[in-house]
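Records of this kind hold a single protein each, on a pair of labelled lines. With that in mind, the following record should read easily:
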Amino acid sequence: MEPYLIITDIDGTLAVDHQHVSPRTVAALNACMDQGHQFFVATGRMYALAKIIANQVGPRAGVIGSNGAVYDFGGKRVHHLLGEKALRAVNEITESHGLTAFYFTDDTVYYTKTPPTFVADALRVFDKGLTVEVKEVGTLENLLAHKERITNGIVISPRDSFGLKRSMNELDASGLLHVSASNTDNMELIPKGIDKATAIQELQKLTGIPAERTIAFGDGMNDRGMLQVAGISVAMANAVAAVKNIAKYETASNTEDGIAKFLEQRFNLPHPHIN
């Protein structure tokens, strides 16, 4: 059988509860890799946090992190950076709307000012990434000292949808970066011209595996691009309507082993007796 490229989002897709991959899904993905197929997680998470989930599948699982700004290939890590102009624009625009942006390298989260308590609570997810540091740098100039490592960022604003929307519109209009969202309460900051789709297209070229043998699973708005460059696009049952509308297939939800069920049928894998 010719090799396939299998790509899955993490939250709402691969992970059952944002932290764990089910035994049945792990078994199905490893059975696919045993057949010679390549597997990558693709996520907005920074590399270190994405790697924690990929490692649950096994050492052969690759990582596309930071919404495509970072990915593994051939034992090396490829990076795309936000860059100084984008960082300056994000800092100016988000601060003008009273919002806090968090900026990611492979293993560190930076921010320039102390966020509101309810936003700081969202950072607790990073506590589970044992190799991840969270640092307040205080000023834009201190942030720019890390510009050669910052790949992407996020703004979390569960209580100010208006300020978030205004910031998204202004940053989008700047043309300095790509703005997306994985949920209605956030704004994802990605290098210009980069998203999960561009990383997959680069991997298709590097592996020689064409779009018609690329399978992508997703559930959120920031998964639409990668589904459109995969010949076999699969929406989870829990996916938003915009994802289901463009996907060629639909499978069960992330809590019902949707990925495993699709792959078991597609590749005629044995049905494991795993709860």
User: Anything to note?
Assistant: The longest helix spans residues 161-174.
